[in-house]
Structure formats: C-alpha cells, structure tokens
Amino acid sequence: MRKAVLATALLLSSAATMAADNGIYLGASLGQANIDIDAANAPIIDGDDTGFKFNAGLRPLDWFAVEASYVNFGEVEQGRLATETDGITAFGVFFVPVGPVDFFAKGGLISFDTNIDVDGIGTIYQEDGTDLAYGVGVQFRLLSLGIRAEYEKFDIDDVDDANMLSIGVTYTFL
User: What is the pLDDT of residues 117-171, one digit of tens each?
Assistant: First the structure.
C-alpha cells in the first residue's frame, strides 16, 4: 500500500513539476569567471574572479527558449594591471527535458565592453563589440523554481579566453 501511495505522489509531483516548464523566467547566477589576455603569445592578464549574471527568458516550448542576460566577469588583477569585462547576451537555448531535470545547450551573441587599467595611470586599453557565445548546463526544476549549473564560453575580441562556471536560480512565471 505504501508503495502505491509513494508512486502516486511521485507521479503527481512529476506532473506538477513538468507543468511549470514554459513561460517567462527571471534568474540570477554566481560563479567563477576566467579572463586570459595575451599579447605576442605572452600572458598580460590571466586570472579568475567572482562573476555574476542576471537573466530573463521566454520558454514557449518544452525544448526551446530565448534568453538574454547581463554578465559581469568581475575584476581580474595581475601585478599593476587589472581588467574588467561585462556584456549583454542573447541566446537560443535548446533543452532536453528528462523529468524534473533539463539538460541544455545554448548559442548566441555577447555585446561586450573590456577595459585594462594600470594602477596609478588609468585605462590604457578599451574595446567593445559583439561576438559569439555558447554554453551547456543542467537544471533541476521544482514547480516554478529552477536550480541551474552551467558553463559558458565567450569569444571576445582581443581576449584569448573568457568563460564562466556558475550556479544560479530561475523562477518561471506561468
């Protein structure tokens, strides 16, 4: 009898979880960002800092969403040099839902701004533009709340490596 009650409860909670898949969602993530800038094959700045992002998306289908975010890579310092990079992203996100878990891959663009400062002198380099961005991740959904882990790679001009590994939450409005 207990097994039947437990199976029914799991089935109903699974159906309720899956019913909250689609709609408009907002989220925030925190993680480790890495920036590597080289000149003439010698590293100028190569380091990590705490990065964060805020995102908003629309998931009209179980397997697809469009998502925009503000991403900040923090401030990476090396000696007297420091760099700050941030940007606005737009992604197409493709999901593979497996019960309350979603595996996803995304591809899109980042409109970025990168500054390199020298301590005591100020900004010595500034670049902005638009480049490719992509990522993969996994998300666990419970009703309208999602807990997400993801890795994103950003192909930013004059930055040899820009990526972020983050953990975040999303909330879907039905």
Answer: 999 899 998 999 999 999 999 999 998 999 999 999 999 888 889 999 999 999 9
Encode the chain in three state secondary structure.
CHHHHHHHHHHHHHHHHHHCCCEEEEEEEEEEEEEEEEECCEEEEEEEEEEEEEEEEEEEECCEEEEEEEEEEEEEEECCEEEEEEEEEEEEEEEEEECCEEEEEEEEEEEEEEEEEECCCEEEEEEEEEEEEEEEEEEEEECCEEEEEEEEEECCCCCCEEEEEEEEEEEEEC
Model-level pTM greater than 0.90? no
| pLDDT tens digits for range 50-99 | 999 999 999 999 999 999 999 999 999 988 999 999 999 999 999 999 99
